[in-house]
Amino acid sequence: MESIEIGTIKDVEPWARLRAALWPHHSLEDHRAELGRAFLSGNEEAVAFIARNAAHEAIGFAEATLRHDYVNGCNSSPVLFLEGIYVRPVDRRKGIARLLCNAVADWGRSLGCVEFGSDALLENSASHALHTALGFEETQRVVFFRKPL
Length: 149
Description:
Layout: E1 3-6, H1 12-22, H2 28-39, E2 46-52, E3 58-67, E4 79-87, H3 96-110, E5 116-117, H4 125-133
Parallel strand pairs: 4-5
Antiparallel strand pairs: 1-2, 2-3, 3-4
């Protein structure tokens, strides 16, 4: 039986490894530091949930924040925003991402949020499919530009 719990300092090592699997362009040290800054520093506008299997191993996570700035496709503020979600490949297709997302949604509702935003890279069709399966609807596609000065 899987369980979902709020991430704490005791979760840093397995959580950082899961983050590195999702975002491999950052080192484990970078992930550990980010966890300390963003989710373990007492910030009441950020939360993370850890999914555990029957052996109590961390098998996935979802991180979310409250965003007060404009969130594409949303009309309210603050907006609950899914910053990242990941489940180990061996544990996928068992409803774990849905459990994580539901925990995040419950947290956001408890803080008065009425919209739940997220994003994915344009080419990440697996993430698009996951978002659709979790009940998100696509609101717009965007390409960002930059010009050095």
